[in-house]
Amino acid sequence: MSTIGNPVTSSGTFRSNINPTWTFQTSALSGGDVTSIVFQMNTNWNAGFGYPDAIATGVFIQILSGATTLETFTHSSYDSVTKRVTLTGSVTLSANTTYSLRVDCTGCGNVGFDRSSTNATGWTFTSGTEFPIVSLDGTAPDVTAPTFDVAPAVGSVTSSGFTPSASIDEAGKIYYVVVADGATAPSVAQVKAGQDSTGSSALDSSNATVSSSPFTSSFSAITSLSASTAYDVYFVAEDDEGTPNVQSSVTKVDTTTSGAPSLSPSTQTVSGTVGTAITATTAYTATDFTGSVTYSVSPSLPSGLSLDTSTGVISGTPTAAQSATSYTVTGAGATAGSATATVSIEIMLASPLEKVDVIESVESSVNAAVNFSGNSIRTVDNRLAFLRNNTDKNKTSRQGIKVSFADPLIDAYVNGTQSGIASLGFDERAAAEALTKVASNPEGATASLSDKLVEVVMAEMKDIFGTVNLNPTAGALVGDWSVWTDGQITVGEIDASTNSAAQDSDSINIAGGMDRPYGDLGLIGVALNIGQDDIDIGSLGSEVESDNLSLSFYNVKQLPNKLGLETQFGLGKMAIDTKRIDGTQTLTGERDATMAFGSISLRDEPLVKGSATITPYGRAEWAYIELDGYSETGGNLALNYDKQHINRYMLFLGFDVTYETTYANGKLKPFAAFAYGLDLTRDSDVGMNYVGDTTAYSTKLEKTATSNLMLRLGADYEMKDGVTSSFAYERTEALGAGFSNSLRFYINVPLD
Fold first, then answer.
1. 551 and 570 in contact (C-beta within 8 Å)?
2. Whole-angstrom Cα distance, residue 626 to residue 369?
3. What's 682's DSSP letter?
4. Left (φ > 0), alpha (ψ -120 to 50) or beta: where does 21 sit?
5. pLDDT tens for residues 76-115?
6. DSSP character for 212?
């Protein structure tokens, strides 16, 4: 309760039968609730009659607006010492309004009052000043706006906003608006209306009613602002009176939003290869997060790759191919902040051209086809060479299959031509020649002697255990047709080198044919070649196998100018099976190869010098080979291989040299040959793609070298019993590319 007015202490003059009435006007800001009135009785009046104590309970006072009684205040208590009566009631008075107050008494008779000209504080009496009341007591009219007992502020600042807060000292309502930094301040009314200084809607606004202590706002967080941007926030408050008292001015708070959480780098690209570890992505630098950052990714990463949730790094070895796909990496702060980055991941199958076993498999298939076409030509050449060197018509049929072994002792036993100790037949002249060789070349002679000892020992073993011989000869077998066979079996292995994978190979090429004289000096014949290749590639189990078949026709004709013309033409077919190991996958395939091949040779008339014969010649060889396209099966690394064409052309110029002499009761025929070969073979295109993937890969298989040299040295030895043996060493060198050495042995024994 607050007191309105001051007590009146001066005495007054007695008035009887009067209902004193005062007219008063409230001031502009002094309206309020009146709940009690204290009225001062005359302390000296009619004391002998017991006044004023006797009539105190009958006093009542009315407050009127015009002629209307707003409230009647009745007796509540009386103080006999001060002679003051307290009356209670309840009425709300408006500010700046005229009211009337009238005093009355029930059963009072003549009543006296104090008289004074003192006005009550907060009230303005316009008449009736002779008999004022003492005071009006009640709730003082609230004419003061609330104040901020906790200054307006913003908190929990993020990149998109903040949370406003404020507290006032009484119940009421708090308003705020957010405007651009440096904008003109809005008015009180504009803040209450959620507007900026132009009357437009503010960037953000709200209000909160506070009705109980502490009178603190409960604003929600603002989340719609821009990052790293300054803003002005204006607050204003009012109380909860019927006509609220509002603050006369706004309160400004400056703030700036934080930077937006970000991840750097924002984009990354991964280009990986199946089966090869990718280069790990860069760890993210997280900015403007609150708390430790945890990372996640969507959609799920390709098989074999993983995300480090503490750094955002993607690493691993992919196991399947996929086209470029975008992945979203999200970083989330433990307390606040979230940002994303993108990673594009493309996983490709490794280029098959970089896989050794792929290239080796293709080259092995090509080489097998080229070698088979060449072997088909060579077997006919061998047949014709045999006929040139052996003009005896009783030896035109021949079994010439040659068997060679990697083990030199086994090879010497099976293929050696040396007779036993008893049949060496050295005479004094031979011994003298041997001693001369030792004196002039001890190392060579020692090596020769060592080889000779091996041959002699193996020969003695053959004398004891029996001779292994698959090369008999005879004359015509069917009419005037001679039948012959030839071929080669190789058992061994090739160790790995820095340029190629290790290979274990078993190959067989067997030829059989028939020929007959044609004309005076001519010959016609047919040959059938059957071959098989088994090539192991590397150490993982890759291999190429083939079954080969060819049929060729040949002809020898003596031209009028004494040139010898040798021609042949053939067709061949191969069935090739491949097996390739790629990681954990075993990939298999089948392809066919067809071929046409031929050769033509011109041999000049031999030049005879004593016991030596020199025969120059020229030869052209060609082969067209077509390898069918095929597809591997067995896994996602399987390849489709395109059809492959090989055009092989070779030109040779050379000469043969033969010499005949006697040695140890037999005929020794040393021979030599030299040839220069020009390789005109075209590059072969190799194309492939992964099964299920259209990406094409291509390369070219080039010829080994343009120029080739061939040197052959050897000797035929015909014993007195008709057994003929032969030894030859041949070196073929592709100039600038490589070389090969080969040894050839065979033995011929009469059929009868």
1. yes
2. 9
3. P
4. beta
5. 888 887 777 888 888 888 877 888 777 777 776 554 454 4
6. S
